[in-house]
Amino acid sequence: MTRKKVKVAYINDVNARKATFRKRKKGIMKKVNELTILCGIQGCAIIQNPFDSQIEVWPNPKGAKKVVERYLNTSKVDETKNMNQGSFFEQRIYKSQSKLNKLRSENREKEMTLAMLEYLQTKKLPENLSLTDLKEMDKMVEEYMKEIENMMATLC
Amino acid sequence: MTRKKVKVAYINDVNARKATFRKRKKGIMKKVNELTILCGIQGCAIIQNPFDSQIEVWPNPKGAKKVVERYLNTSKVDETKNMNQGSFFEQRIYKSQSKLNKLRSENREKEMTLAMLEYLQTKKLPENLSLTDLKEMDKMVEEYMKEIENMMATLC
DNA sequence: CTGGCTATCCTTAGTCT
DNA sequence: TAGACTAAGGATAGCCA
């Protein structure tokens, strides 16, 4: 149970790396999720899975929807909980608020998407490149690396 | 100093929200950064700044480069630190490893970019929409919301 | 508003199942 | 292999400068 201060460096042991990846990815996604709720914003994390060349995107289209819903439901409901039998004006104001919040959320999601587009414009990719090509290449590189590791193990 | 368990819900107080945003964003970026180093992968977080309609992307082109460098420098250097005066074969193997690691990193960055492209293809945006348009709209919505909040304050 | 401080809460490395 | 457990380490809410 003696956990030392972890050195932030590449984990060579495959199993430890896998475990750490799984745990920490979960933690990051949770934190991103919390921030979106606490601050009523859109946010996402895009992280590669080093073990099956999958890429994990959060929020996915489904997750993003959930965030917006949660935002709309919790942000102003709590605030107005103590006036659920409020006056006509209060009800109207509440409705307007909800509408504006929704507008704002939609707007911000668009902003984020545009930002991603702008970010991607700084990256240049060969036109004829596909994800499957890359996965194949990655597999080959991985195999080479394993071979080298074995050679090293033999030498040391 | 009595910090209670925080309820994950939209923070109504502007200053508290701002402080929380600043602190937690920093924490998330750190965690993402650590994960990329620990597991030798690419990862990024895209988070809106709720206060100036800016969108913070990590890694930015500069940050991404740093990650790759750090990855290349730390992942295998530590492992081979105890053989820095190694044999000819060991030196060659080390060089091959570095090359392959670099290839792999490049490959993974391309994968991520492609993944982002695929993600964006699920989003449809009006063609004639610009980030400045959205910022203008956002500002207007913000002003409306403030007005409503003032009205509510007057009523309550 | 931003950054530093610290008690408290939260995350996670190591371990077993 | 992934989940559960638990203590050490890390993040951060609230407060002050």
From TrEMBL, chains A, B:
Listed GO cellular component terms?
nucleus
MADS-box domain: which residues? 1-47
The organism sits in which domain of life?
A: Eukaryota
Q: Which Gene3D superfamilies does the record associate with it? A: Transcription factor, MADS-box
Q: Which residues form a coiled coil?
A: none
The GO biological-process annotations, alphabetized, read as: positive regulation of transcription by RNA polymerase II
**Which protein are we looking at?**
MADS-box domain-containing protein
Q: Which UniProt keywords apply?
A: DNA-binding, Nucleus, Transcription, Transcription regulation
Q: Name one Pfam family in it.
A: SRF-TF
Q: Which organism is it from?
A: Lupinus luteus (European yellow lupine)
Molecular function, one GO term: DNA-binding transcription factor activity, RNA polymerase II-specific
User: Does the record bear Nucleus in its keywords?
Assistant: yes
Please state where this protein is localized. Answer: Nucleus
Among InterPro entries, the record links this protein to:
SRF-like_MADS-box, TF_MADSbox, TF_MADSbox_sf
